[in-house]
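Ticket opened by: R.M.
Priority: normal
Category: complex prediction / small molecule

The reporter submitted a protein together with adenosine-5'-triphosphate and asked that the result be attached to this ticket for the collaborator who will pick it up next week. Submitted input follows.
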Amino acid sequence: MAENEKPYFIGTVKAIFFENPENLYKIFTIKVKKTNTDWDAGDIVVTGSFGEISEEEEYRFEGQIIDHPKYGKQFQATSYKQSRPTGRKELISFFSSDEFPGIGKKKAEKIVDELGNDAIDKILQDPHALDFLKLGEEKTQNIIEQISSNHQAEQALYQLNHYGFGPTLSARIYQKYGAQTLEKINDDPYRLVIDVKGVGFKRADELAKRLGITGDDPRRIKGALIQMVTAMVNETGDTYVPGTELIQRVTGVLRSNSQTDMTDKVVAGLRDVVKDGVLLVEDGKVYEKDLSDSEWSIAQSLKMITDTFKGVSWTKRAFKKELKHVESDFDVKYDDSQAQAIEQSLTHPIFLLTGGPGTGKTTIINAIVAAYGKLNDATLDPASDDYAISLAAPTGRAAKHMGESTGLPAMTIHRLLGLTGTEDDEFAEPSLDCKLLIIDEMSMVDTKLFKTLIKAVQPGTQVVLVGDKDQLPSVGPGQIFSDLINSEVFPTTILKNIHRQDSDSTIIQLAHDINEGIIVDDVFQNRSDRSFINCNSRNVPDVLSQIISKSSERGFDIADVQVLAPMYRGQAGIDNLNFVIQNVVNPMKPKRKEVSMGNIKYRINDKVVYLVNTPEDNVFNGEIGKIVGIIKAKENTDKVDKLVIDFDGNEVTLDRKDWANIALAYCTSIHKAQGSEFEMVILPLVNEESRMLRRNLLYTAVTRAKRLLIMVGDRSAFERSIRDQSSERQTTLKERIYDTFKVKRDVKSQDDETTPEKPQEYILTMDMVMNNAINPMIGMENVIPSDFMDKKEA
Ligand SMILES: Nc1ncnc2c1ncn2[C@@H]1O[C@H](COP(=O)(O)OP(=O)(O)OP(=O)(O)O)[C@@H](O)[C@H]1O
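Result attached by the on-call engineer:
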């Protein structure tokens, strides 16, 4: 092999024996015709991501020979090209073949004489290359199309590979743009930032440089702005970013390789992206257009539901009577706020119910459903055609809990709406055919999901939203539930009385104290159902190992013991703790089956968590399962390693390529555990990641414990979390609601003690941006604030 020459194989594809349509990954054998390696067998297995590969066709593959631990030597292709006729003779017979009607031998010779041995490349690059043949436009076009359809995917993927994209990302890009891949990318590589998940600004920027796009090119500035807004809202959970901060940050990023100040160009770029309809600016706030639209859409849907509600047909007396029946049926006496909640939910189009653990939210949902059935003479039989009640929650676990406590079908919001949890959801416009909709665990619902949910509600439906507003807000941007409550536009009940009867339980009281910001020594005292072990982060793994061993000696099933940590990195982080606990509860033993995926080993009985939504398998993000089978590649006809996982009675088999969708779950993030409860929760909290020490995070973790809670770590980390009063997320949903419901804002914000005014520096008008608040030197004389406004407002 010549120096610098990449290892290659040329050969005909014999049999494709694996294809993943999602990422174009394929495995096949080729009959080797030529190679610059020392491979001397007639066939070789080739793996990689390929656009179109046809059996019996000849290709040239570049890559490397690897020694797969199980399958032996194979060629891992990083790029490929359809093998083309290169010699004069081969080219002539290619062009005169049946593929190109109208071209005989003579014309084929003419083509090769005129264009030479790289005739195919020339035709692909220049649509006029064949003009000299004077075949007429239609015929010429047909020939070009025939050649490019053969070579399109291959060419695009080849080029993407040369641009430095790995096979998976290249495949994703090709899937997005298809035939126009190269054209689109060459025109504006920064479009990848918006269009293709996994391509960030830096990546696009590297490509742009190769394509000769300069540092202050408007496309570069636009790309940086869009990426920065997305990154910032995802990081903060706000639904917008302050204009000045955005401009400063983007200017900083763009300045990295040039010293000239770009502020004025960034401001101009912002105006352009706004014109393009990707971002939107209002009062100094910059939004992703989608998120801003979602806030408006939510407000409008809520207004529609409110306006179309026709009231109820029964009297207050009838309600009181029915409440008595329900009390006797369920053998419970509702306290005043509970009774009020039941009545309000049944007499209003939209009702919000919030309360901490054990305050009776589930109890109220039961009562609402029962009373609704009786008062409206509505059937509670799900099998009946007239059944019109929908119960849903954001996670599978929470939905299951809801289903069990009501005895009625409950499902995830995704499933209720027929969403797939993929990017296609953005375009979904579902419609909900029910008269009463109850959503539990509302604090976990983010802006975009709520938009789709509430838009699906039909006129005349009653909507009851239930949750604990003090828990962590949703992972995605927004804080829908607390915004709705704080708007004070909708009837709301805040349940405060703890009803859970087990008088020995001190966990619930602790949770309420944390929520109130009360630090008493009691937090760190050992009680019958909770304890605190003071140690530093280095000792956390060791202490945890001991607790886990003890708990299993005492008969606790590891499925009931959940370690919850706020962060992934570090000694006390999720990744390390999973490794440590796995070695305690499920260590490697001789003759035991084990499979690896990177650094992670999976064994039978391992506890794992599912990380995506796959409704077709009935498994959803956050569900915890147990590995019950390992089928090695050599043991099955597909020749791939498989894991069989039991998700609470639902057995799912995952091929190796899908293992990225699971993780060990001895320890999971507090975010992931939201909506689930466990018999025993072990909570390590250390000072290392101080930005994680939030009151709502601690509160959420503590409220996951049903029976036992063990807190481990720095006492000061717990104290800091309880003391934390970090500000709420910045959103404008309340304003959208006030505008849509025509509520006078000034009156509202004066009354509203729970939502303090935003700090002054955040209330930036675009005038302030324009008035050179950032850099007095920039010349923006010709720019006026309305340039930044959405057409709607201008
Ligand atoms: N008015 C009441 N009188 C007596 N017991 C009650 C009353 N309300 C609720 N309970 C009981 O208190 C316990 C907690 O109630 P419930 O499960 O409804 O609370 P929750 O707010 O849904 O709690 P969590 O969020 O922790 O699930 C239950 O055992 C329930 O039966």
